């Protein structure tokens, strides 16, 4: 069979965005190619017109069109699946996290034949086998299958216990050197599935409610398989890599795994690395092992500086003290620290959001990143938003663009104000705390009053900043289209034939 994967990967406000790797698509492609099927990829990094979309689909001459989509593209998915059907008449299957957590919505789309609920490697393999032999596909486990006017809801398969059984992902259809982070030598790697924690804003653990399992839900490749696989993938797809960015929600499952992984990684790969960690997993020995491995940057979720929000709403089971300790330990061993933060959470207020700013000013990360809350289907916070009537029909291609829920106590303009000026607000509070004598205590309180005052035109300030941003984005797109060399000279990530060496700091920041 000829299978076309359609991977939407948009970032509308990032100049010259060229996308990232999808390990889901790569693994599915490897499984299907191993069975002898022909695999093609339509990597959507810019919103296509109808004719552009149909031309790309027709060019592949597919027997099956497989969409891998997240919730940011939920509404566009209906249009795209219709275009796909009109272009070739091929069967359409939709998988990914959105299909798993909103199968009713996806299977109601008139041009979707199969909706994959749960992990898709074995399910898609069986679907292609049945279709290629002209069999009846409506009873395949893990699929909600359209049969005439009805949808057959087959139960999901158990999730895969042993990730080492999977083949290496096949990225041969991606332009790996031309991807957004790869341009500065960063190779992104993923080696785990699931999560042991229950954060209410995240969908990483919610598959447990959907698919049966016989073993652990939070699964990692073995240390040996992970280290050797990274080395093979880099040799094959990005031999000029200067940095490995581990994209797993949390880098390690435990100390024992990390202790085994460190010498293997150093032997087989040996490149500097960056990773995500959780504050209560950072201890003195953990920090030292991360340094020994070559980790230069650790990204950690602060999410909220308000203790009630952290423990009672987000259910992170973390104290602010855990964050302070983890950031201090990493600083002491010389590892750069980035913070992840969420603005506009349900029930949050402007003063609460400023608590997050103040905590960042205190722990002083090298880079503080703020994201706007997005209500992902299947999560506890999505259910809360639905129950309280906070959901809207707004859709953005990622969680840095706009506000998707409506709250009376935290207006859209105020949310955008904190988000757009997050780093500047941190510097304001840091400057205030460094004033001499009692001013260091009084100035932050004065900032609180000023920033929350109804007299401060926060919405107007945001509007002016947005206008400037649109002009800057348009100018950047125009420059990179005409002179990539000039765009690179100005500091942008313009196309290169291959990634080139850069400073370690620059390589780390390519992760953002």
Task: Please report the number of helical segments.
Answer: 19
The global form is globular
Percent in helix: 40-55%
Determine Rg (CA atoms, Å).
Answer: 23 Å
Structural class: alpha/beta
CATH class designation of the largest domain = Alpha Beta
Quaternary state reads: single chain
Poorly predicted tracts of residues: 495-512
Report on this model:
With 512 residues, this protein is of the alpha/beta class. The chain has two domains: 2-153, Rossmann fold (3-Layer(aba) Sandwich), CATH 3.40.50.280; 175-473, TIM Barrel (Alpha-Beta Barrel), CATH 3.20.20.70. 42% of the residues lie in helices and 15% in strands. It contains 19 helices and 15 strands. Strands 2-1-3-4-5-6-7 form a seven-stranded mixed beta sheet, sandwiched between helices. Strand 1 (2-8), helix 1 and strand 2 form a beta-alpha-beta unit. The longest helix has 25 residues, at 458-482. The chain is globular, with a radius of gyration of 23 Å. Mean pLDDT is 92; it is low at 495-512.
Please give the structural blueprint:
Blueprint: E1 2-8, H1 23-34, E2 38-44, H2 50-60, E3 64-68, H3 74-88, E4 91-95, H4 97-101, H5 103-107, E5 114-116, H6 121-132, E6 143-147, E7 150-153, E8 186-189, E9 192-193, E10 219-220, H7 223-237, E11 243-246, H8 255-268, E12 273-277, H9 284-293, E13 295-303, H10 307-313, H11 320-332, E14 336-343, H12 350-363, E15 367-372, H13 380-387, H14 412-420, H15 422-433, H16 439-452, H17 458-482, H18 484-489, H19 504-509
Parallel strand pairs: 1-2, 1-3, 3-4, 4-5, 8-11, 11-12, 12-13, 13-14, 14-15
Antiparallel strand pairs: 5-6, 6-7, 9-10
Helix pairs in contact: 1-6, 2-3, 7-8, 8-9, 12-15, 14-17, 15-16
């Amino acid at each position: 069979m000829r299978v076309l994967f359609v991977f939407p990967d948009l970032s509308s406000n990032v100049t010259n965005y060229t996308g990232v790797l999808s390990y889901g698509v790569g693994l599915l492609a490897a499984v299907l190619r191993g069975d002898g099927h022909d695999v093609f990829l339509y990597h959507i990094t810019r919103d296509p017109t109808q004719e552009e979309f149909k031309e790309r689909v027709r060019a592949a001459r597919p027997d099956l069109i497989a969409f891998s989509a997240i919730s940011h593209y939920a509404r566009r998915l209906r249009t795209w699946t219709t275009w796909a059907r009109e272009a070739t008449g091929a069967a359409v299957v939709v998988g990914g996290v959105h299909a798993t957590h909103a199968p009713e919505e996806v299977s109601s789309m008139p041009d979707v034949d199969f909706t994959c609920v749960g992990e898709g490697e074995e399910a898609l393999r069986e679907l292609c086998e049945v279709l290629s032999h002209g069999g009846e596909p409506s009873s395949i486990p893990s699929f909600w299958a359209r049969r005439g006017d009805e949808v057959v809801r087959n139960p999901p398969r158990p999730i895969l216990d042993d990730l080492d059984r999977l083949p290496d992902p096949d990225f041969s259809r991606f332009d790996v050197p031309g991807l957004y982070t790869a341009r500065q030598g960063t190779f992104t790697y993923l080696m785990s599935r699931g999560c042991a924690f229950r954060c209410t804003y995240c969908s990483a653990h919610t598959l447990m409610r959907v698919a049966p399992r016989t073993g652990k839900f939070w699964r990692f490749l073995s240390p040996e398989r992970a280290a050797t696989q990274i080395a093979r993938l880099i040799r094959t797809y990005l031999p000029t890599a200067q940095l490995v960015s581990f994209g797993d929600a949390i880098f390690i499952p435990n100390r024992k795994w990390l202790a085994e992984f460190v010498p293997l990684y150093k032997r087989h790969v040996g490149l500097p690395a960056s990773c995500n960690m959780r504050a209560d997993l950072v201890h003195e020995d953990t920090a030292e092992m991360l340094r020994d491995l070559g980790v230069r940057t650790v990204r950690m979720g602060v999410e909220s500086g308000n203790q009630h929000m952290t423990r009672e709403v987000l259910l992170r089971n973390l104290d602010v003290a855990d964050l302070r300790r983890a950031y201090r330990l990493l600083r002491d061993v010389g590892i750069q620290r980035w913070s992840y933060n969420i603005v506009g959470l349900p029930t949050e207020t402007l003063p609460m959001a400023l608590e997050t700013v103040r905590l960042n000013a205190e722990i002083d990360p090298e880079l503080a990143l703020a994201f706007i809350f997005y209500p992902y289907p299947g999560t506890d916070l999505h259910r809360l938003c639905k129950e309280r009537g906070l959901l809207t029909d707004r859709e953005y291609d990622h969680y840095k663009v706009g506000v998707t829920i409506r709250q009376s106590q935290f207006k859209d303009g105020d949310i955008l104000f904190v988000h757009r000026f997050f780093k500047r607000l941190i510097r304001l509070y840091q400057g205030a705390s460094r004033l001499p004598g009692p001013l260091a205590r009084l100035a932050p309180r004065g900032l609180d009053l000023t920033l929350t005052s109804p007299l401060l035109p926060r919405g107007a300030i945001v509007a002016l900043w947005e206008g400037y941003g649109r002009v800057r984005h348009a100018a950047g797109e125009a420059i990179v289209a005409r002179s990539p060399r000039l765009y690179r000279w100005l500091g942008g990530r313009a196309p290169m034939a291959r990634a080139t060496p850069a400073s370690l700091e620059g390589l780390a920041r390519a992760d953002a």
